[in-house]
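S1.2 Input.
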Amino acid sequence: MEVVGRRFAVLGLARSGIACARLLLARGAAVTVLDVKPREALPPGVAELERAGARVVLGPHPVAELAAAEFLVISPGIPDLPQVAAAEAAGVRVLAEIEVALWWLRAPIVAVTGTNGKSTVTSLLGEMGRRAGRPTFAGANLGTPLSDAVDSPANAPDGLVVAELSSFQFERTASLRPRVAVLLNVTDDHLDRHGTFEAYAELKGRVFDGQTAGDFAIVPAGDAVCEGLAHRRKGRVLRFGPGGDAFLDGSDLVARGPDGEKVRVPRSLLRLRGGHNEDNALAAMLAARCVGLPAAAIREALAAFAGLPHRMQLVAEVGGVAFYDDSKATNVGAALRAIEGLDRRGVLVAGGREKGGSYAPLRDAIRAHIKRIVLIGEARANMKAQLGDLVPCDEAETLEDAVRLAARAAEPGEAVLLAPACSSWDMFRDYGERGDRFAAAAKAAGRACEGEGEVRAKDAKGGSDAKTAKGAGKSAQGPAGGRDGR
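S1.3 Output.
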């Protein structure tokens, strides 16, 4: 794509907007960058763009500025705006940041999408590529913007680009041609933006759009939605799961590549927890074989990879109670997998900002694994209405209050699990901040419960009243309006 002297407006100056503007400036485009935030709230990279020749326009987005551009690049988190619609009506071509990056990517691309698991699979594939000695980029929706891959060592015929892609990024993208496209699953998510499950699924299916008969489409075996989306395109369909091309065989994970050669990895080598992570490992193994990564690199990566922050992460263990942070479980499907992955009964901390859809899919898992629920955020009343008949259900005003209530309810040998099934934006900057706050609260609550245990032991030794501090806390907890729930 020749962009020298052509006019681009880049809307939104978070990481992807800055990376895209930097890429365009390096290739001679005339770039205007816009953001509603004041200058002091913007990241340092904006000053670098200004020095490189970008015009910076802050405050409400003037329609005239957007309409004066030939191309308008919008960040994935930006919703539909009337100014964007007006610019598009005036003939401006509206693009996603990844579309611009794709103009200059020449390396084989593995595109990974799905409602859940895509960050884990992307990270695993990145680790496999690096251990194979190939220059490898792993990012896009995960961490580093795809624009930064263009001038990296990975952008070469012998390199590898692994791109995690969200439904938002598919909205304004037409140039994706992945050598391997992985669709892990599709469950209700982002219905507040996309409207219906069908519209959301169709966006996910765009990962296969540009493929030819020589490319590979990887989907879960027996998943009618994912298989249907893949079969409507031209890539060769491969499957992971029972009866597929990558599967569990007794105590081993096995992947059979396009050449028929099998890679076998003992399940005992995996450091990731839960059956859903075995599925993630199988999908990564199959994709790795499709781009020619050797068996040794695949085994080494699976043995070394301990998972990502805020994904079923053990953050504290006090008095026999394990505290798990799965703040990344921002939808019902992810929360379901987290609950089903528990190897002990537990107390669930959930809630936040709703994304559309029902919480009913959680009911069977809650019956099997959860003894009590503590709810926070905007969704708590609706969640209690849908789930409160299953187990005792409390509400809390803050995450810290919720963790204290959950810690008091949990007994040795049980767990406290943060799996919100909601976004974090009603109370936190993002799911990372929510997870960090949970970890800090878990450690504090654990220390408090340990102290209460010491009081109980002293009281029992001295023959005092059998009601312990912990027991008193339980009787007082109730809903969030009680003494410990303020």
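S1.4 Remarks. The two ends are 58 Å apart (CA to CA).
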